[in-house]
Amino acid sequence: CGRLMCCLRYEIEHYKIFKKKFPSPGDLVATPDGDGKIISQNVIKKTAIVELQDTSKQEEYPMGEVEVLPDDED
User: Fold this and answer.
1) Which one has a higher pLDDT value, 29 or 16?
2) Taking Cα atoms as reference points, which of 20, 19, 24 lies closest to residue 39?
3) What is the pTM of this model?
C-alpha cells in the first residue's frame, strides 16, 4: 500500500513472535566456540551477541548455532 505505518504495524507482530523464540539476554548458551552468555539479540538478522566464558570475547552467531543451556539452580 506504500504507507510506512501500515507496514511497520504488520512487521512488529512478526518481530515479537521471533523474539519470543530466541534466547534472551543473560541466558547461558553453547556456541561452536564454547559456552557463553547472551549479551543482545538482533531479531532482524536472526543473530545473537554472545560473551564467551573462557575469553570474555564477544562474538555474533546465527541463532541456529546457539543452544540454550539448562538451568543448574537445583
Assistant:
1) 29
2) 24
3) 0.76
